[in-house]
Amino acid sequence: MVENPQNKELGSLLHHGASITGLWFAGRGKLLSSAEDCAIAVTRTRDWSLLSTIKSPIPKSVGRPSGDTAPVGGAPRGVNDFAVHPSMKLMISVGKGERCMRLWNLVTGKKAGVLQFERGMLGEVGEGKFASGEGRKVAWGATTDGGEEFCVGFERGILVFGMDCQARCKVVPEPRSKTHQLSYVQVGEEEDAQVLAVSTEDGRILFYSTRPADLVAARAAEGKETPLPAAKLLAQLGGKDAGLTGRVKDFTVMFVGEGSSKEFIIVAASSDGAIRLWQTSPSDLEPHTGKTKQVGKLLGTYETGNRITCLASFLMLPPAEGAKDDNIADEAGVEDNDEASTSDSDIA
User: Fold this and answer.
1) What is the dihedral of CA 47, 50, 51, 56, to 10 degrees?
2) Cα separation, 136 vs 180, whole angstroms
3) Is 301 helix (H, G, I), strand (E, B) or coil?
4) What is the phi/psi pair of residue 291, to 5°?
5) pTM of structure
6) What is the pLDDT of residue 305?
7) Residue 131, C-beta contacts closer than 8 angstroms, at least 6 positions apart
8) What are the domain boundaries of the chain?
9) Which helix (H) or strand (E) holds 279?
């Protein structure tokens, strides 16, 4: 807003041959985008030129899972979601029609590995024999005593993996409900003091602790393998207890204030067209030994009159000291900084 207060259009993305499924800015210099053409494109924001493309294999057609929207005679294809590691050197992606997750080296732009979702693993999160078994969402995170981790979201549950690609725990909302969006939220001063936030079909945003010390172990049935432990549900926002039952399609979490006055503003978007702003305290989301808390104070609701599928939010800050309107970039985009950061230049 400081650089472009007149809200001019800066450029267009024309590199993909199918619907866009995800966008993510790698600093100021590059934009990553995924689409249903099985490609993840790296675009330079200075002139919106295509720098490189990461191509995901087109999956082979194996039956037609329920809910499939592929054309007659075709197979489901495309990248559902991707997530870049904080180091900017690794990326994970999940795609349609694939029961696996792909790991990419962003320095070389090459595939670094493939993690297959085994049948037993999928069964832990309700992906039965006739389900698609495809990952729908991915995210990187960290816990204070568990180190770095990442999670893969399925239709009705989430699997959390360690950096060794071994499943650590699962997240299955109770009562059972479809999951739509997931995100790691930092609740402490340390960067790895995070909880996993998940939005559901029945109008809730659930906050889970994935720390090893908080996992809830499950008993194995006779003659069967021991189930994965479950992440601990710390708090929930919305839902029947708040008089809301419509699906939360997407949400974002913003931080307001500093020190003891720090608060979370949670912006939740529902498919019925309502955008709701909630306020809660970081202390409400910190790991605890008690029962699940009902958190969140509803600040307001805005009815858009449209079906919302995704959203993004940001805090509007005052202009930087000395900023002037004549510094606005032209329509070609923002000028590149010659001293580009290492994280930007690492991406192929």
Assistant:
1) 150
2) 9
3) strand
4) -80, 170
5) 0.85
6) 92
7) 65, 66, 122, 155
8) 20-248+318-346
9) strand 274-280
